[in-house]
């Protein structure tokens, strides 16, 4: 006797569970939420809609400027390393030709790269293509989540309600602040101080700060 197996409709695995009514409702709520500005006291650091262009971005990490106390964001890309002031948006250091053993974080066990500019002599943990992660909460109750209700495009949610399921109103208790529907998502998270939000894709870096308000950066510099 010959047994045959029917192929599930649409190529769906016969072991894939269906979403419950609760899960469908939550997914639909996320899909319906448009991108909105982050609430006060957060403000965008760069004036561009998608942050500052960084060609071939691989990952990002945080450090602190020893002189100003500002959060710094280190960017590792296929074109080298860069360092941004997360309050002003200024690019304060650049290394276009790092040593081969230091060019990407996967060369070492802790996924770090050597600092540059004011943080030369230290190492910065990098999150992105090769793994790693950033802070997802702050001490005073902010939460950042990366969700994918419509794979493969990630959405970044900022909230003050403790995170999913976000039963309160969108735009009042939680905010969809970034949608990676045009480039490959790399990393998102808070700085250790909790004063900066960074979102990185393979083509750009977006920053929000609640540090000193010096105005939105109008720098046209790119990492490439």
For the biggest sheet, the summary is: 5 strands, antiparallel
Number of beta-strand segments? 15
Report the uncertain regions.
Answer: 213-224
What's the overall average pLDDT, rounded?
90
Task: Please explain how this structure is put together.
- The chain is mainly beta and 224 residues long.
- It is 5% helix and 34% strand.
- It contains 1 helix and 15 strands; from the N terminus they run H-E-E-E-E-E-E-E-E-E-E-E-E-E-E-E.
- The chain has one helix spanning 21-32; strands at 43-44, 52-53, 57-64, 71-77, 80-85, 91-95, 112-114, 123-125, 127-128, 143-150, 153-159, 174-179, 185-190, 196-201, 204-209.
- Strands 1, 2, 13, 14 and 15 form a 5-stranded antiparallel β-sheet that branches. A 5-stranded antiparallel β-sheet has the order 6-5-4-3-9, with no helix packed on it.
- The model is unreliable at 213-224 (pLDDT under 50).
Short note summarizing the structure:
This protein is mainly beta.
Task: Looking at this protein, list some descriptive labels.
1 helix, 224 residues, single chain, globular
